[in-house]
Each structure stands twice: as C-alpha cells, then as structure tokens.
Design a protein that fits this description.
two-stranded antiparallel sheet, 23 helices, globular
C-alpha cells in the first residue's frame, strides 16, 4: 500500500471516525456515572420490565403535601410546618420535588437524622451495656460525616479501622458494642457493611448458605489484635480501642477478665476438644480469597479488610438494599442484613443496576437519596405490606417512626423547644432550659419506650402498652396539648382566630401535614358548635391527632 493511500486513510479516520469514537466514549462514560435523574428513570424502567405485568395495578402518585411530609421524615427526621406545606403546594415549578430534596439534604438535620439511625443499627445489638457511653460521640461523628457527604466507603473504613477514646471517636462504636471480642466484631462488621451474616458459620458450616466454618474464622483473623481497654481517669469513666501488637511470651497473649487484650493471631476452636489451642487462621477475605501473611499488624489487617470490603460489589448492594427498604418500605432482598450470593432479590436487574451506579458515583450517599426520591416507586401512595403472593413495589409501605423521628414530630406539631440540657460528645451535661419539663433526658427516655432495631423486619415492630401510655397519658404531651392562653401552641392559635374552620385546618396541617377531609372538617366543626367549652373541643382534637396512627407513621 502506498504512502499516499495510508495518509488518506489516516485523514479519513481523523475526520470521520474519530469524532464518532469520541461521542461513543462520552456516551459510555455518561452511562458509567449516571446522574440521579437518569438513574431514577432507569430504575423505574427496570422495575416495569422485570417486576410489573401489563395488568399490574400500581398505586397512584402521592400529592404534593404527602410527598413533602414523606421526604421531610425520610431525610431530616421531622415534619414540615403548615407554612412549608402551603408554600410547597402552591409552588408551580415542575422541579419542586427535586429542589426540596436537595434543600433537605443540605440541612444539617439530615446528618443528625441518619446518624441516629446508624446509632440504633449499631447499638441495638450490643453485648456490652456500657457501650451506650459512645452514643453521643457516635451521633456527633456521623452527623459531621453525613453532612460533609463523605462517601459510604470512607465512613465504613473509619468504623472498621477505628482506635481511640470511645467518648471522642464515635467510629469505635462497633468495637465497644461488641466488647472488643473478635468473633462478635467480625460478625457485626460483616452484617452491617456487607449484609452477610457469616456468623452462622462460626461453629459449623452454614446451614443454608455456602459459607464454611473456616471462612468465618479466616475473616475473624483480621481482628484479633484490636482490644478495648478501660481508661483510668478520676473525672469520668471511659474506654479506648487500641491496636495490640505486643509480642506474646507464648503462642497467645493471656486475656484479662474482660477479654480486652488483643491476641497475635486468631485460632479456630477445636470443637471436639475445646481446651485445645485450635487451628491458627490466616487472614483471608471469604468473598475474594484475598489474604495477608501471619504476623501482619493490626493496622495492616484492618486496613486491608476495610479496603477489600468497600471495593466489593456486596458492599454497595448492602447499603442500597437497606436505603431502598427505608425509603420505599420494602427491600430488593427480603432481609436488609441477610443477603448474599445464595439469596435471590425480587428485582435482580434493578438491584444490580442501582448498586453499580451507587459505586460508580463514589458511594455518594446524597446521590442515592436524590435518586430514590426521584423514582416513581418512591412517590407512590402507601398501602399495607403485601402478602407472599403480592407484587413488590406497586405502592410505598407505611413505616413506624423511629423514636427520634416521633420525638421530633411532637416537638414540631406542638411548637415546643427541645430540652437543651443534653450530653455533649464526652458525655458531660450542658446547661439550657427544658421546654418539655425538668427532665433533661426526655429524648433518651423516649428512645427507651419507642426505640427499635432498624435492621428488624417492620412487621415485627409492634406498638406496646408503655408506648400507648406515654402518648395517651404522658404528662408532657397532655400538658402541651392544653389551650393555655399565650403559652401553648393551641392557646395562641385560639387567641389569634375565632374561625373554627381555620383552627381545624391548622391542627391537621400541624400534625398529619394535610388538610382535613370534608368529613373530618364537618365532624370537628359540629363538635365545636355543640360544645360549650371551645378550648376543650380543640384540646381533644389535637390530642386525638397526635395519638393517631397516621401521626406515628411515615406514609
């Protein structure tokens, strides 16, 4: 072939094919890192393709008021005020739903809401009761990281590799909650970050999954050198998580009474002879078989397993499945902390796509929230939880509010201030007035009555007698719903207007974030007209709304 012909072909390539190649490359890159809007559309398309049939009856989309209440509860853990609702409903902008999600994600309360969620995930299954001293530091640490929009991979790595005073570094929470015990820490790290419950293989091969006993103990071999020790201080009691790489005089370092001394290596117990030393296990990641040599330091071990975990596809899938469950009411997998290669999701293509897109976007948590909140699946009306034969994702599923969410809604609905005498990061009491009464631990007391493990199936979260008593007969609530002139929310409202219809509408907006139906309005007004005591009528109405199932659920 002559040089002229070669030159002509090169020029032809540059002029005609090169721009096409660049365009294709750009399109490929765009698909590799989709925007939240693009991802939301693709999720809805995939759900329609693999889950719904032509005759599937989907729940209609919620109205603006319902959407606003839903995203407020989901993102910042509170309800909007009547002013927020009115402004949002009257806003004619087509993109107002996307804009309000962005605004809420920029609100500092977003980080606090989800920090409290993960506090409940980690501490609900603690084996050491004193682990509650890490609670304030845990919420503070996570609030900062969520608001800074640190990637989920970076946050998870901080938990897996944490050291330091538990009152200062909330990322030490998993170690403290499990008392620094190697097997328990191993189980929780796998459950929380991979949603794989490999602890079922601790004593024998897993009954239903592929995991072998050796694989559990190979994973445990990443954690033997981490220890939890008490800090000797005359001021306050605390603990610290440390890397214990001291050489042992024998094969293993003797543990103290609390098991707070690290071991050089992890040994798998001999089930036939429990008194025997057992088998020394090499650190090895069960999902990829990546391994470290014996003698690796604690920092090397935990640093390596953090890296390998956060780069694995199950890490993204675990988080996406959990968040989809929290926001839509049903996960792709039946359990949010028991998934893996031997579990089948209800929408495998959708779950795989959203998990991959989350990873491609750098495990950006706010990106995932924007994506899910923009889907049609998220914006459907709520229906009761489906039966085994029901079609998934045809509607949203109502969720009982977590204790902090319910506490926040009460404060907002009744226009109360949060008690400010709370514990700071180091657990010291800070001063301030308590608008709910002299008890400075009102929120903590609420957690005791209304708290639940967010990893549990919601159908197992049932109302209790103490909860009913707290809401129906609690001194704080009963005091706050009274129409005290010039002092309470209701007292100020009745003083401001003589129009009973306006009062009824305001109370519904304040509590359940919607206007009353015609029947509800008619009944309330008739009650007010027939009664002699106007204040008592609206006290009863406000009390009934605050104690309603609608108020206590995210719908």
């Amino acid at each position: 072939m002559g040089k002229a012909m070669i030159a002509w072909r090169i020029n032809w390539w540059l002029v005609f094919l090169f721009p096409i190649a660049i365009a294709l490359l750009s399109a490929t890159c765009g698909r590799a890192k989709p925007t939240s809007s693009e991802a939301a559309h693709e999720v809805d398309r995939l759900l329609a393709e693999e889950v719904f049939k032509p005759d599937t009856k989907l729940a209609p989309q919620i109205d603006d008021a319902a959407y606003l209440r839903r995203v407020w509860l989901d993102i910042v853990g509170d309800i909007p005020t009547p002013e927020h609702i009115t402004a949002f409903v009257l806003d004619p902008a087509q993109d107002k739903r996307e804009r309000v999600v962005a605004e809420l994600l920029a609100n500092p309360r977003y980080g606090q809401n989800w920090a409290r969620y993960w506090r409940d995930v980690i501490l609900s299954r603690k084996i050491e009761d004193r682990a509650t001293i890490v609670s304030n530091a845990l919420v503070t640490t996570l609030t900062e990281r969520f608001n800074e929009n640190q990637s989920w991979a970076k946050i998870a790595t901080a938990f897996i590799t944490a050291t330091g005073d538990v009152r200062e570094n909330g990322a030490t929470a998993i170690e403290l909650a499990q008392d620094g015990r190697t097997e328990e820490v191993t189980s929780e790290v796998s459950r929380i970050f991979l949603a794989i419950q490999i602890q079922c293989a601790q004593c024998h091969d897993h009954k239903t999954d592929r995991w072998k006993r050796e694989q559990f103990h190979e994973l445990a071999a990443f954690f033997p050198r981490v220890a939890v020790r008490p800090i000797q201080s005359p001021v306050e009691r605390s603990f610290e998580v440390v890397s214990d790489d001291r050489p042992a005089p024998g094969r293993k370092l003797p543990a103290d009474a609390q098991g707070r001394r690290g071991q050089p290596e992890h040994y798998m117990p001999d089930m036939k002879n429990p008194t025997a030393e057992g088998t020394k296990m090499q650190p090895k990641f069960f999902l990829t078989s990546a391994k470290l040599p014996f003698g690796s330091t604690d920092a090397e071990r935990r640093g390596a397993i953090a890296k390998w975990m956060t780069q694995n596809s199950w890490f993204a899938t675990a988080f996406v499945n959990r968040m989809w469950f929290e926001l839509v009411g049903e996960g792709f997998y039946a359990s949010i902390d028991d998934i893996g290669p031997d579990r089948t999701p209800v929408a495998p293509k959708t779950a795989e796509y959203l998990s991959r897109a989350f990873a491609q976007n750098g495990y950006d948590i706010k990106w995932l929230f924007r994506t899910i909140c923009a889907t049609e699946a998220y914006q459907r009306e709520s229906r009761p939880r489906r039966g085994e034969d029901g079609v998934p994702f045809v509607a949203s599923v109502a969720q009982p509010l977590r204790s902090d969410q319910l506490f926040n809604t009460i404060l907002t609905a009744l226009d109360l201030e949060e008690p400010e005498a709370v514990l700071n990061r180091r657990g010291r009491r800070e001063q301030g007035k308590a608008a709910l009464g002299p008890n400075a631990t009102a929120r903590q007391a609420f957690e005791v009555a209304f708290g639940y493990d967010p990893s549990d199936p919601r159908e197992l979260v049932n109302a209790s007698i103490p909860q009913s008593l707290a809401m129906m007969n609690g001194v704080r609530i009963n005091t706050a719903v009274r129409a005290v002139r010039g002092e309470s929310m209701l007292g100020r409202l009745l003083e401001k207007t003589d129009d009973n219809a306006s009062v009824v509408e305001e109370l519904y907006l304040r509590t359940v974030s919607r206007e009353p139906t015609a029947k509800e309005r008619e009944g309330a007004l008739k009650f007010a007209k027939d009664a002699k005591n106007r204040a008592a009528v609206f006290e009863d109405l406000l009390w009934a709304l605050v104690n309603s199932s609608e108020f206590a659920h995210r719908r």
